[in-house]
Amino acid sequence: MVDMPRPEATRRQQITDYALGVIHESLWILGMTLFAFVMAVVAVAVFK
Amino acid sequence: MRIRTLLMVLVAAVFFVAASVSAAVAQVAFPPNNPSSTELVNHMNVPGDITKGLFWNGKTVTFHGEAIGEVMVRGDYAWVHLNDDAYMEKNVEEGAKLAGYNSGMAVWVPAALTKAIDTYGDYKHEGSIVEITGTFNAACKEHGGDMDIHATSLKVLRVGHVVDDPVPAWKAALAAGLMLLAGGLFWLERRTRNRINPNRGV
Amino acid sequence: MIVRPRKEDHLVIGKYTGKVIIGVGLLMLIPLATSIGFAEWDTAIDFIVSIMACFVFGYGLQVVCRTNKDLSWSHGLVVASGSWFFATALGCLPHFLSGHSGTYLNSLFDVMSGYTTTGLYLLQDLDHVSMGLNMWRHLLTYAGGQGIVVIALTFLFKGTAGAYKVYVGEGKDERLLPNVIHTARAIWLVSLTWLGIGTVFLGVRGMMLGQGPVRAFFHGLWVFMGAWSTGGFAPQSYNTFWFHDIGYEVICIVIMIAGSFNFALHWAMWTGNRKEIRKNVETISFFVTLSIVTMVTTFFLAKANVYPDAMSLFRKVFYQLASGHTTTGFSTIYARSFVTQWGPVGLVLTTVAMAIGASACSTGGGIKGIRMGIISKALLQDIRRMISPESAVIIEKYHHIRDTWLDDGLVRGAMTVTIAYLTLYAVGTIIGTLYGYPLEQAAFEMVSAASNTGLSCGVTSPFMPAVMKVTFILGMWLGRLEFMSVFALIGYGYAVVRGK
Predict the structure, then answer these.
(1) Which of C128, C157, C158 sits opposite B87 (nearest CB)?
(2) Which residue does chain A place closest to C261, by CA atoms?
């Protein structure tokens, strides 16, 4: 179907790769979100 | 001289009575704390100064609108969305004139009270018109800053109903005509393609 | 001397444009099936009429434009923008026939907004719209996010050399894989995987929040499409404010930001290159600018005491800014609240986030992270050159999947497009102010349209002046296709008229 850069990888490994990719990206984004939350807490503490 | 004074007093009395009657009527027709959703969203007291806004914030208001979509029950309480826009009584399918966007308020109400609402508005339904009384929050502390009304009472003003959306004859005819035309062109395309160049790929 | 296009040129363009429109017709089968499933007969007929209109146009062009010639670069660009034009004109028939739009111009606006993944809309009484029409609205953003050309490439094109030219004409130039058809399919793989995962998460969360299973599923699917495509359409007039839940908001944020990433980045992450997300110039640029804008807005709104506590402040500020910066356009506040609660400074900061936009070759819009990265590095390079001895050779590089040297041609390209965006933003803002809107609101709305964001502060409305509607439609179109293919279309028309 699609040319894979790792043609030696099995279908199962490919699916695992994709799942891990999604998880990895999501974790990075959640980390960013947490950072924003901390900033909000600091901001309110400073101004209240 | 005396008649003129008398006339003036009479006119003044008439004005006074008219004014009182108007005030009384206005009171009944538009109670002072019965804002529309537009007023609630634009609740600023002093234009341009957001620190002085929040005119309605924290006040008890009476609000009414069509219950739309669904009720989302979360434990003892539930979210209901009431729209008080131009489509509150009839929706577009029933012939309501187009008059802008939907507009409404999110209401947090005890779940038991929502059982009185029988119909929620969507394509096939015009929802019940519901009146609630409660506290308006410009940025609710309990709900992450949401603009909402915490209702303590709920009353159904008008029960909802099912909406029909029949197919007009001209549209069905147009559909049939276009289907024939498209079918003809598709067949023509298939036929002429092979004739011109049988080896063509695309 | 401008060479007038010959008949062969018209035939090539006609043939391939026709193919894309056939694709649009096929796409409409999904909302048709939805309408039939929910027994919405009038809506079903609306879709039949629209599908057949697409087929008549598409197959008509195939019959008339018979040619074996392949596409050249200029053809590719014209096909890309021409297809968008006709796909909008025909794709808006369901909206128009539903009776919710009013005028044909309003329908054009909504569908251009859908394809360009903007998210501004003029549809009235959205809360009473059919399931079929809602399916079409959201599918438009999902398809537009991929690129309607990409869709056509996947199914309807076979030749590859010309196909790549049309692909680039739509504003992408990432070659995920050597074969452009395979690249298109890889993009689909990424999008469909996220579609499955995202819909499940949102649907399950919806049911936990009290939605019935059918509504939870469709809302999950549609909100996913709006988030991933960074489109911003949602099934109710309350947008994602409907759910009143931090869990739903966090899931949306993850999907929005993931959707705003470059497809090449996804592909790299998924094929073993895990470090890419940390090293990529676009993700770094995005996180830096999002952090700065969030910090300033958070501190300003905290001082103004708009929200009662830290959690509310975070939820509202971060969601709106993430939505703006990824050019999604979801909101959890009323449109007018940008004006009445956030005020001019909040409006300006959000406008800046929208203007910068998401990553290149993604579903997002705006000037884009890669240009911000390139321009910053170019600035750095110039400063270093100034303070170094004359004989020193200073070259900067940036990392985007691969390391690339920053050469003058590259920088010039980035700056030209950036200036084009800024000019577009400015022109639209001026038109808005001429119609009486306050400057910061006119700017907010025009930048929202041209960066394909879709956040509104209340300027967009069915009663907006027609000139502004047309301005926004053109802005959305130019912004999404990154100018070049639209200029090519105009140039083609000019050459037809004035060429020798």
Answers:
(1) C128
(2) A25
